Amino acid sequence: MCCFVADEVICGFGRLGDMFGTTTYNLKPDLISIAKGLSSGYLPISAVLISEPIWQACLQESGKLAFGHGFTYSGHPVCAAVANETLEIYKEMDIVTTVRKVAPALQDGFRPMPITRWWARLAASA
Q1: pLDDT tens digits for 99-117?
Q2: What angle do CA 59, 51, 85 make, to 5 degrees?
Q3: d(Cα 110, Cα 46) in Å, to the nearest integer?
């Protein structure tokens, strides 16, 4: 079985004008990793979103295998509460619509800037 895993740690939570970058590009991943935006970067928290087929496979096999899984910071109540509140704030602020409105101005501001690679600048200054 092959899995399509999308890393939304950087592109998630409205940054591309949709809640997730995979939505922007009409992708259908099996797993999506999310993190920083879940708490707006204030507390350490991450998660993995799984598709229905993956969930069903886990559910079906869980009775057959002894599979213990956990992390040091799993389910920390303060981080989870902050994540829940952060998601509510994103909804209240309609963050996706806001990003769609301001993105063109941001892009227009970047267009005139020359694109140089950091190593080219280092070589030029040596």
Answers
A1: 999 999 988 888 887 776 6
A2: 100
A3: 30
Beta strands at 31-34 and 5-7: parallel, antiparallel or unpaired: parallel
pLDDT, residue 118, reads 63
* Backbone dihedral angles phi then psi of residue 115, each to the nearest 5 degrees: -95, 110
Task: Give the SS3 label for residue 80.
Answer: helix
Q: Report how far residue 126's alpha carbon sits from residue 120's, in angstroms, rounded to the nearest whole number.
A: 10
CA atoms of 38 and 70, how far apart (whole Å) = 19
Say whether pLDDT at 44 is over 80.
yes
Q: How confident is the model at residue 6 (pLDDT cuts 50, 70, 90)?
A: very high
Cα–Cα distance for residue pair 29/22, rounded to 1 Å: 8
Closest listed residue to residue 48, CA positions, set 21, 82, 9: 9
